[in-house]
UniProtKB/TrEMBL annotation:
Domain CN hydrolase, chain residue ranges per copy: 1-240
Domain of life assignment: Bacteria
GO molecular function: hydrolase activity, acting on carbon-nitrogen (but not peptide) bonds, in linear amides
Residue runs in coiled coils: none
InterPro entries to which the protein is assigned, alphabetical: Aliph_Amidase/BUP (IPR050345), C-N_Hydrolase (IPR003010), C-N_Hydrolase_sf (IPR036526)
Keyword annotations of the record: Hydrolase
Name of the featured protein: Carbon-nitrogen hydrolase family protein
Organism annotation: Rhizobium lusitanum
Amino acid sequence: MRIAAFQRLALFDAAEQAAEVLARDLAWAEAQGIDLALFPECYLQGHSYNEAIARRRALSLDDPGLNALVARFAAGRTTVIVGLFERRGAALYNSAIVAKAGRVIGAYAKAHPLESGCTPGKDFPVWEEGRWRFGINICGDLRYPYTARRLARKGAGLICNPINLMLRPHKAEKWHRPGISGLQICAGHTGCWVMAADVVGSNDDGWFSYGSSAIVDPNGVVVAKAKPHSEDVLVFDLPDRQPERGFDQKAAVIAT
């Protein structure tokens, strides 16, 4: 399976512009034979720790506007994971959708959100892509080993980690390297491949992100790492088949 992690400039309140970038990148990904593409946390509308801003940006998965965007950027054969603020009734979630062939085929909600007003997700679905299974942990979820282990026990051989390390300067400096080591630790205690996609750039408040996108093998070895302070794309070919331990269940999507 060919995977790709896209490190992109952070956008804010610009879902249409984000969809244009996604459409361009995914057209390129399809031409390159990418099976699974990962984009950053809350990439579609822009990340925020402010509840009022997050609620204003949030979309429900059945929103016609969201579905129109997905139909535009996920039209091809490449499966894409992209982060967004999601509305479910009155509840707000920091989620990542899985989309392919013009439609949303699933979503994961962050189990340990730091964003004000976000409800913790409780489900840990796993999807199939070819001969591989993958699941999602969002950003700081990886600090709680059980979240990745739940996916590994369900047969995931790849854990996808959309992240958004746009922080105040002293925190951005503090978390840049631990962000990479967290992926290595996750790989070590699950035996899974791990890939992360981060944003770069800055916001109007002076926060910025180095960009901590990377792909890590099951032994914790970093096989690809994005250039800091710049947009980048990491492409890697996983083995044709994941370890047999990942195929003890039949369902294409397995929910708790």
